Amino acid sequence: MTVQYPTIADCVGHTPLVRLQRLAGETSNTLLVKLEGNNPAGSVKDRPALSMITRAELRGDIKPGDTLIEATSGNTGIALAMAAAIKGYRMILIMPDNSTAERKAAMTAYGAELILVTKEQGMEGARDLADQMAREGQGKVLDQFANGDNPIAHYHSTGPEIWQQTGGEITHFVSSMGTTGTIMGVSRYLKEQNPNVQIVGLQPMEGSAIPGIRRWPQEYLPKIFDATRVDRVVDMQQSEAEDVMRRLAREEGIFCGVSSGGAVAAMLRLSRELENATLVAIICDRGDRYLSSGVFDSH
């Protein structure tokens, strides 16, 4: 009998869904988190990164050896660097220079080339430069912000996994919103199973900087975003997101980033309004890529 061994690409997805034990407090609700940091490159972005490259290949838009360009604040870049290494592409990533050292190091470890823009230029500037380079023929932009292969990855994997793991009992889904691929794909799937499932998106309050999520200016709003797929948007303060992130590590043993702390903080707020609900929040990455920022230092 020939054993069929998996490749690293086969290990993307199928992440655990676990119950909060202490942070939930006394409640009739079930609070669950999906551990996307368990993906091979360490974040929920592994799913759309592999989807965008694989589906572009199937359409004949790209072929191994081509140069791919993408603007990223971190997790998508790391995931695309891994996917490009798996598939045999040259990967150029453009990101703001205030991204953590761990993120930059992870991207280059996978063989990607980095171009840094200033903190002031930010993700908008990174996206503009990626488009300019593509126009100049320097490579192809996958464009996670406008690429339907991003949310479709979550429609085909993340959403079905959550539905199956909760036995269809999920009542509320909470996710941070950056490119919005996760919330768009999961919302579409869950609403098809049960239109009453409430989809809750998270964005930073004005003046709050939470890595990976944004309040986009209208002209930069991701084209994949459809506001009708989100039932409620929660504004999250940076300090609250960071506090819950630290508590997740110290009280639950769940080591994650700031946007994940924000998603759980929003879920805890929701839980106080509800009874006998089953809430699921996305833990989108691992905390080790934020250590150099000092966010886990004693508070």
What does this structure look like?
- Its cofactor is pyridoxal 5'-phosphate.
- Residues 9-285 form the Tryptophan synthase beta chain-like PALP domain.
- It holds the Pfam family PALP.
- InterPro entries: Cys_synth, Cys_Synth/Cystath_Beta-Synth, CysM, P-phosphate_BS, TrpB-like_PALP, TrpB-like_PALP_sf.
- It is a single chain.
- With 299 residues, this protein is α/β, with parallel strands linked by helices.
- It has two domains: 8-38 and 157-293, Rossmann fold; 45-141, Rossmann fold, CATH 3.40.50.1100.
- 36% of the residues lie in helices and 17% in strands.
- The chain is built from eight helices and ten strands.
- The protein has helices at 46-59, 75-87, 101-109, 122-135, 149-165, 181-193, 238-252, 258-271, and strands at 17-19, 30-35, 67-71, 90-96, 113-117, 140-141, 172-176, 198-204, 232-236, 278-283.
- The protein has a six-stranded mixed sheet with strand order 1-2-10-7-8-9.
- Strand 7 (172-176), helix 6 and strand 8 form a beta-alpha-beta unit.
- It is globular, with a radius of gyration of 18 Å.
- 50% of the residues are buried.
**SS field, number of helical segments:** 8
What is the count of β-strands?
A: 10
Question: How many discrete domains?
Answer: 2
CATH architecture of the largest domain: 3-Layer(aba) Sandwich
Distance between the termini: 57 Å
Weakly predicted, low-confidence segments = none
What is the alpha-carbon Rg in Å?
A: 18 Å
Strand/helix succession: EEHEHEHEHEHEHEEHHE
| Largest sheet descriptor | 6 strands, mixed
Strand arrangement, largest sheet? 1-2-10-7-8-9
Q: Kindly report the CATH topology of the largest domain.
A: Rossmann fold
Protein name: Cysteine synthase
Enzyme class: transferase
Family: Belongs to the cysteine synthase/cystathionine beta-synthase family.
Domain Tryptophan synthase beta chain-like PALP: 9-285
